[in-house]
Design brief:
The complex is a heterodimer.
Chain A (H helix, E strand, L loop, with lengths): L1 E10 L2 E11 L4 E5 L6 H8 L7 E6 L2 E2 L8 E4 L11 H11 L4 H14 L15 H13 L5 E5 L7 H16 L3 E6 L2 H7 L2 E6 L2 E7 H7 L5 H10 L1
Parallel strand pairs in A: 3-8, 3-9, 6-7, 7-8
Antiparallel strand pairs in A: 1-2, 1-4, 4-5, 9-10
Helix pairs in contact in A: 2-3, 2-4
Chain B lengths: L2 H14 L2 H26 L5 E7 L14 E6 L2 H10 L5 E5 L11 E4 L6 H24 L3 H9 L17 H35 L2 H8 L2 H37 L1 H19 L2 H18 L5 H11 L3 H29 L3 H27 L4 H8 L4 H8 L6 H29 L9 H8 L6
Helix pairs in contact in B: 1-8, 2-8, 6-8, 6-12, 6-13, 6-15, 8-9, 8-12, 8-16, 9-10, 9-11, 12-13, 12-15, 12-16, 13-15, 14-15
Classes of the chains: A alpha/beta, B mainly alpha.
Chain lengths: 235, 456
């Protein structure tokens, strides 16, 4: 679905990404792991064409990726935000229309999703009246609403209580069943272990470990993923 | 729908739907008008009629007090008698008492009242009459001048009219100063106000991190321009509503106070005849006019008539068109810079270091307004009205005084040429800065973002 070839990015003298090569297979959940400041967010922004790499190429669905392909991506950033003064429904419709949906379709799909996540009664409330968890639900819905083929979730469970985190986990797996490809960036190793098919560990701007989760675990005598993470990073 | 249109639509609608927009657009001007109207309405309302006894022990004021619309004066022989009357009759309001002095003219007079102090109207009227009567006395007894002589002397008034020698039209310098200064200040405030709204909007998107999601759907440039255009349209809407409101107000005044306008226009035509006719006609006309004014009694101030006459002499359509032009392009120029400033900072306090240099040209022009008013065609005014960063304010100040066409065109062309450069530079800074969190930006960063080939 997405092939990342030799991507490098520097800010002044700081190497944010150094020759990154990754392959995200269609219909899988790909775990993008690594300590803070390793370069995960930079990589995600490059995939989203928010910033341009210094060198390297992206191949999306078999063709060189262009900014026109970004509409096929749904991105839930780690740093989340909504317009605080706008009403929930109005804002969700706006964000959906920016992704190319027409108003009627956006409203119809939003009501379906909001019903499922039990937030439909908040449609006419201002965002600032919502709890953080509820705002995150709204953002999750907005991310997936235009049925993107590639989903990028950056720390999707942060800020959720266990019940809602579990709800979200099931939704993500449901999306995968429906054929979406998912890039999942997290520090939460148990959830990565639970959800991911493949993983890549980035440290100091480089890929230090990548492959299918099963293979990697086998190579490390089935140690828990956080153990593997710590050992690899500290090497 | 095009994405930039969606951004414009959101920026516009979220602001226009706010109650504060309507408060500022409608409620505030209406309140202001009401505040100004209340004293006028109160003053024109007939007062309760007052009855005042006059006791004059000097004999100087005998038979001199004139009763008017609001007050009737009665003469009484002695203060004791008057005092009893005041105590016995509720219909009496006060006594004016002028005690005699042995040698010189009276220095003090008294206004006696019972329980309720007499109204200000009574106090001022009594004071004025005392003064006038005494003065007339002195003039007559010492200088042999009659009140009519005096009236003639004091009514001698020569008005210096500034006229174009070719068209013969009045210059109305003061009206032009007022109109020009108002326009200049209005455009300054509008650019500043809506420019900082752009900055706050950009900062809101940056600090709430929503920009991260939005730049996946629209290019940073589209987001920035959408915001700039959307907020600019809010500004134009506000002006349009103000013009409508003012139009409604003027029509309302015309309907209810038609006399004000009739006098102004009749005087206008009279002076036109006068300027063509002979001296004698002129004198005759003005004397008649003066008499008419005295008869009207309302004494509409010359300055108000000047104002109305001067205003009717100004080409408002042209003025509004030029105002819109300079607002739109001055705003585009400054708002894009404000957007760049907003993208550089995380909070309002940090924004100072970037907003201050941006606003210096505008502030400077505003501070120089008084000296420019003194010489609207001087070199300072001319230069400031041509340089793009100061021209929106400076040119609008000059317009009512008449500006050579080539200067207006040059100023407009330069502004049209400069604003895309500003937008381009602002977009470069914005694109790089909007996704940088937590680092305090400096002017060095700005320079880095602007350098050719700098990538986000």
């Amino acid at each position: 679905m997405l092939v990342i070839n030799n991507i490098s990015k520097t800010y002044g003298t700081f190497h944010a990404l150094d020759d990154i090569n990754l392959h995200v297979r269609r219909g899988t959940v790909f775990g993008l792991l690594g300590p803070n400041g390793a370069g995960k967010t930079t990589l995600i922004r490059i995939i989203n064409h928010i910033i341009a790499p210094d060198s390297g190429t992206l191949v999306f669905d078999g063709h060189p990726m262009s900014s026109a392909d970004v509409v096929q991506i749904g991105y839930l950033p780690e740093e989340r935000g909504l317009y605080k003064k706008m009403r929930v429904g109005e804002q969700a419709v706006y964000l959906a229309r920016l992704k190319g949906l027409d108003k009627a379709t956006a409203e119809q799909r939003l009501h379906q999703w909001f019903d499922r996540l039990e937030i439909d009664s908040w449609w006419n409330r201002r965002v600032e009246e919502l709890s953080k968890g509820m705002q995150q639900k709204v953002q999750f819905v907005v991310t997936v609403l235009h049925n993107p083929r590639l989903l990028i979730f950056d720390e999707p469970f942060s800020g959720f209580d266990p019940v809602n985190a579990d709800l979200l986990k099931r939704e993500i797996l449901h999306l995968k069943e429906q054929g979406s490809t998912i890039i999942f960036s997290t520090h939460n190793m148990p959830s990565a272990e639970e959800l991911c098919d493949d993983i890549a560990l980035i440290n100091h701007a480089r890929v230090v470990l990548s492959g299918s989760l099963a293979d990697i675990k086998a190579q490390h005598s089935n140690a828990p993923l956080d153990r593997i993470f710590i050992d690899t990073v500290q090497q | 729908m095009n994405k930039i249109l969606l951004v414009i639509q959101r920026e516009y609608l979220t602001r226009v739907k706010k109650p504060s927009f309507w408060v500022l657009t409608i409620v505030v001007p209406v309140l202001l008008a009401v505040v100004y109207a209340i004293p006028i309405i109160l003053a024109s309302r007939p007062l309760e009629h007052a009855h005042v006894l006059v006791v004059d022990d000097t004999g100087l004021f005998q038979g001199q007090f004139r009763s008017g619309r609001d007050i009737t004066y009665y003469e009484a022989g002695s203060i004791d008698y008057a005092r009893r009357q005041l105590q016995q009759h509720d219909s009496l309001n006060a006594i004016v008492y002028i005690p005699a002095r042995e040698t010189t003219l009276p220095r003090d007079a008294y206004l006696f009242y019972r329980s309720d102090a007499p109204s200000l109207t009574v106090q001022t009227d009594a004071q004025n009459q005392l003064q006038e009567i005494l003065r007339n006395r002195i003039l007559l007894d010492v200088h042999g001048l009659t009140p009519d002589d005096y009236a003639l002397l004091t009514s001698t008034h020569i008005r210096l009219r500034t006229q174009d020698i070719e068209t013969g039209r009045d210059g109305f310098l003061q009206v032009k100063i007022v109109v020009g200064a108002l326009l200049a200040i209005l455009v300054f405030m509008a650019v500043f106000m809506f420019g900082s709204q752009v900055m706050r909007g950009v900062m809101e998107e940056k600090t709430s991190r929503i920009v991260e999601v939005i730049v996946c759907s629209v290019k940073p440039f589209q987001l920035m321009m959408g915001k700039v255009v959307g907020i600019g349209l809010v500004g134009l809407t506000q002006f349009a509503l103000w013009v409508l409101l003012a139009g409604a107000l003027v029509t309302g005044v015309q309907l209810t106070h038609a006399d004000l306008f009739e006098q102004a226009s009749s005087r206008h035509s009279q002076t036109e005849i006068a300027s063509k006719g002979t001296e004698a006609t002129y004198q005759y006309q003005t004397e008649q006019e003066r008499a008419a004014q005295y008869q009207a009694g309302q004494g509409i101030d010359n300055s108000i008539q000047d104002l109305i006459e001067g205003l009717t002499g100004i080409n408002f359509t042209m003025l509004i068109l030029l105002f819109v032009f300079y607002f739109v392009f001055g705003y585009l120029l400054y708002a894009s810079l404000f957007a760049a400033a907003g993208s550089l900072v995380d909070n309002e306090t940090d924004s100072q270091q970037f907003t201050l240099p941006i606003t210096i040209p505008l502030l400077l022009t505003l501070l120089l307004l008084p000296s420019m008013v003194g010489q609207p065609s001087g070199s300072l005014s001319t230069w400031l009205s041509i340089i793009p960063f100061t021209s929106p304010v400076a040119m609008l100040l000059r317009i009512p005084f008449g500006v050579p066409v080539w200067q207006v065109l040059l100023s407009m062309l330069l502004l049209l040429a400069t604003f895309p450069l500003c937008i381009w530079a602002a977009a470069k800074v914005y694109r790089s800065a909007i996704l940088r969190y937590g680092q305090k930006a400096s002017w060095r960063d700005v320079w880095r973002f602007l350098r050719p080939g700098s990538k986000a």
